[in-house]
Every structure is written in structure tokens, then in C-alpha cells.
Amino acid sequence: MTENTGISYVKGDATAPQGKGVKVIAHICNDLGGWGKGFVLALSRRWPEPEAAYRKWHRERARNDFGLGAAQFIQVGDRLWVANVVGQRGMFPQALDPARAGGTPMGSKGVPVRYEAIAAGLGRVAAEAQELGASVHMPRIGCGLAGGKWSRVEPLITERLVRRGIAVTVYDH
């Protein structure tokens, strides 16, 4: 556990969260309806429901709250939920590596991550976690294909979740 943040860091798989009690697995999705690279593949290997719910949510977006900063909660087990948080605008083209200079993301300028959207989505995750009496588990959200920096995401987690008394575990695979 990092003393200054209140976040527990463990080696492991965020799709197999550790500990007792109700758990919410939070991750970041894009606003284009794309699901097929990164952490979502690990989720889909374990449960079909989060992907199906996300695709339906996006398909029916004219009639719901789908968009940057929104969060969708899908129950995948007796005491386990997945939070699809829309925190990136567009996505990097598959042919380009986001870590390489010159890779331009589709549907956005710069990297796809949107820190304000992650903050808003984490606020929704916090409310749901409090209602469920749940801890929150996640990979380093927004820092893979979304191209974000952990030094910007970690304080959002501390502010939106930890300060509300919600236990947070971050998994490094």
C-alpha cells in the first residue's frame, strides 16, 4: 500500500480481485463503441456480459446516458460487478503503437485518455461502491491503450474513491 494515496498495489489479475466482500472491477472504455484491445479482452475471456452490455449501451446511446464520464454497472457474480467507465475519446488505430511518436489516435487529438471523464466516471463508481458496500479493483486505468499517465490518474482515484472511505486495489499484471 502506498502510504500517501491509500491505494493498495498488488501483482495479479484485476479480473480475479482479491479479498472478501462485494467487489467492483473498474476499467476504462472508449466513446466509439469499440471493444477488442487491452484489458477488455481479459474481461471478455471471463464474462460475456460486460462486453454485451457495453455494446448495447453504445448502440442505444441516443436513448441513454452513454458518453464521456458515464459508467455502467454489470453484475457478473454473486458479489462481483464490472464498471464500464467511458474515459477515452476515440482510440488509437490498431496499426499504430500509442507509445510511438507519430501515432495519431482516431476520433481525437493527442492521446485518447480524458482525465475529466475518468474523474466523473470514478465519482459514479464511488456512489455505486458505497451503495453496494463494495471495494474497487482495477488495472492502471487510462494508462494502457488510452495513453494516460498514472501520475495524473492516481490522484483522481485518491480524490474520488479513497477519500470517501472506499478500499481500492490496483493490479499490476
From TrEMBL:
It comes from the Bacteria. SUPFAM superfamilies: Macro domain-like. GO terms for biological process: peptidyl-glutamate ADP-deribosylation. InterPro entries: ADP-ribose_metab_enzymes, Macro_dom, Macro_dom-like. Residues 1-173 form the Macro domain. Gene3D superfamilies: Leucine Aminopeptidase, subunit E, domain 1 (3.40.220.10). It catalyses: an N-(ADP-alpha-D-ribosyl)-thymidine in DNA + H2O = a thymidine in DNA + ADP-D-ribose. This is Appr-1-p processing protein.
